[in-house]
Amino acid sequence: MSKTFKKVNAIRGMNDILPSESYKWEQLENIIKSLLSQYGYQNIRTPILEQTRLFARGIGEVTDIVEKEMYTFTMNKDAETANPDDMLTMRPEFTAGVVRAAIQHNLLYDRPVRAYAMGQVFRHERPQKGRYRQFHQLSVEAMGFDGPDMDVEVILMLARLWRALGLNNIRLELNCLGQSNERAEHREALIKYLEEHVDILDEDAKRRMYSNPLRVLDTKNPAMQDMANEAPKLFDYLGEESKAHFDTVCQRLQEAGIEYTLNPRLVRGLDYYNLTVFEWITDELGAQGTVCGGGRYDGLFELLGGKSTPCVGFGLGLERLLELADDKGVFAPSQEADIYFVHQGEKASRAAALLAEQCRDAGWKVMVHAGSTGFKSQFRRADLSGA
What we know:
The chain is of the alpha+beta class. It is built from 14 helices and 13 strands. The chain has 2 domains: 250 residues, Bira Bifunctional Protein, Domain 2 (BirA Bifunctional Protein, domain 2, 2-Layer Sandwich); 47 residues, no CATH class.
């Protein structure tokens, strides 16, 4: 006697999207794709699996994503003979993979490239409202553009997206991270400051103090807020070129009517950013208030073995965006069919099937009742189809 098979459920933090919800996803994705096409962006699709060293190098080895959150495994069962190329990771974000593809295929050989990727990414986080282990992300990359005008354009594009989705309660925060030499000078002063206040630091801050001190300032620990607020400001270490770049960004946003707040503690969770960084934040998602984040990453191409290439882009989680848009009622109701054929008897069934094909040729969405149920049941199913 065979044992009863125990049913299988979805893995914790990885959710099914059922037909009752998938129509909203399709509408959201179509709104996004239409907007991106207005700005000249084209779709790029990269593999879910990449070599682990791509993310360790691109995102930063001491970031939370690389240290704690990646799904990583080896293709070599013999640990003694394994090499770095045997270590694979399910993508935790898109930008590093898009840049890898651009370098590998020489996408920028004759012109700058506007590209976007949209799909599933994976992070081993504690599942909670607005945070999942498998989730959907939009990543937009403007590669080969070095002026502040492109920083402004991607922010304006996002503002247009918020308007299209009816999102009003969403605010923009900006900061400037300068260039690597400026951050190095600030880093030295910041480490000295943190050493003077080491008794206030929590264990996470102590761990980051020397490896990634800028991230200490992004703490959510209430006991460290005053210390973080009084820490040396990166802006005080910026050179004239960095300040001029950021001043132009701010000025053009003001000219476009985009309100923003300067946040000197905004550093983002990825190491590849420089100059302009930004986040769009809402109070409608509880603790998970960041809807979108991005900025300039001029050094990432060179970091991953390519030529120095100025870039700017952003990433946003689609689950959070869909939740916000759904609350605004922007999605049209699902309609399975324009026409639903009911029929009774063999002759009518054949006629309905032929007529349905003619209607589909004309562009209609058509469903033909299957089975031999009575008219009452057929009309009930027709009502459910939305025809």
